[in-house]
Amino acid sequence: MKFRAIINAFALALSVAMPLASAVGATLQSSDERPPIYTLDSGDKIRVVVYGEQSLNGEYSVGPAGDVAFPLIGNLPAKGKSVAELQQAITAKLATGYILDPRVSVEVLSFRPFYILGEVNRPGQYPYATDLSVDQAVATAGGYTYRASKSKIFIRHLGEREVEYKLGKGKVVWVRPGDSIRVGERYF
Description:
Elements: H1 2-28, E1 45-50, E2 58-61, E3 67-70, E4 74-77, H2 83-95, E5 104-110, E6 113-118, E7 124-127, H3 134-140, E8 152-156, E9 162-166, E10 180-183
């Protein structure tokens, strides 16, 4: 009987705590925006594994035209595709008369770099990592200089114009591969 009362009390406490925990979790999230899904472009290096077909396994580069030259099936467009989409495209092409029930795995070996300049300690080119935020990019470049503006940042996504982003507590700004990040100078 006493055991049953303890279980009921625990269940009641849990039913009260769960909505509270999810409400607190919702307020602690820094941004509703998710990190961008990585899409392939020229300069990326990938590894393709076709299970049971050792001669097709290897490392491939996305060429200047955005294609991957793959044995048997030729050039496949990769520019703008996610890794999963490219994996599906290779699987579909191999299944059309080349391999019975192909199982393909694709992974990115090296990403296109991002660039950071302005008021950081070590401006330059750095390797991109998935789910990279501006704060992490600045840390990679040795942090802000004493003159840096920490309230805004300027980002030029590949092929687009430079855009100003406001920085603040709990706000996350995501970096994409190939981005140029400029940290401006503060005024007093």
